[in-house]
Amino acid sequence: MTEKPCVTDDPAVSPLSSVQRVRVGSCNEPKIAAVRSAIAAYAPSVEVCGVEVASGVPEQPVGFEEIVQGARNRAAAAHQSGACDLAVGIEDGLIALPPAVATAGNPHLNIGCAAVSDGKRISLGFSSAFAYPPNVTRPAVSDRRPIGELFDALWRERRGESQRLPSARTSGNVGKLTAGALPRSEYARHAVLCALVTFVNPDLYPQPEESP
User: Fold this and answer.
1) What are the angstrom distances between the C-alpha of 45 and each of 14, 22, 40, 116?
2) What is the pLDDT of residues 140-190, one digit of tens each?
3) Number of domains observed in the structure of the chain
4) In this structure, how many other beta carbons lie within 10 angstroms of the beta carbon of residue 198?
5) From residue 181, how far is each of 46, 136, 178, 185 by CA, in Å?
6) Exposed e or buried b for every residue in 160-184, given b needs 16+ CB within 10 A?
7) DSSP 3-state assignment of 59?
């Protein structure tokens, strides 16, 4: 009789418990913190490091295709940058809602994608979505201007706050818009956790075929 894989919700015996090193396709600290926190649920002693890589997509991604491709490119480049057990790419961008359900005057939402790769397979996960103020969304979509810069300028103008670093490198734009309730690292952590499900439950998902 063929033995079935043991399925457990105990992190100590997770398929990821042997993971020792993870590379992140970015030097953005909130992204690195998001990956570190997500992986730590399964591999508490993991080493997580960031590496600067190109996303291969426009600086302001628009649409699922560009967002996902950016995350995949970052994961692939991170994996090729040095020895690691897993590599992670995270890319945010704007998606358009269908006109029938979109909010009047602001039909786009921001969403983040995480791609996790072990060099043989790649898995995707997404964050929740939120709306930027229309004054920054419109030029981000029409002119492909980075929405982070637009948002920081609007925040300084409307809130009168000075900042040493861009929001993307601290609590994030979503952190500011939620008054600190959802910092960027936590926002991105959800996407990474969702991307890890195929690695946590390998018996439930098709595996890549071994080369002869």
Assistant:
1) 14, 11, 7, 18
2) 999 999 999 999 999 999 988 777 777 777 889 999 999 999 999 999 999
3) 1
4) 18
5) 27, 22, 5, 11
6) eeeeeeebbbbbbbbbbbeeeebbb
7) coil
> Which residues, including other chains, have CB under 8 Å from residue 92's CB and lie 6 or more apart?
61, 67, 110, 111, 112, 113, 127
Task: Retrieve residue 80's tokens.
Answer: 């090729």
CA angle 145, 149, 150 (to 5 degrees): 70
**Residue 10 resides in a domain:** no
State pTM to two decimals: 0.89
The CATH number for 168's domain is 3.90.950.10
Beta bridge partners of 180: none
Question: Cβ atoms within 10 A of the Cβ of 96, count?
Answer: 13
CA 182 to CA 99: how far, in whole Å? 28
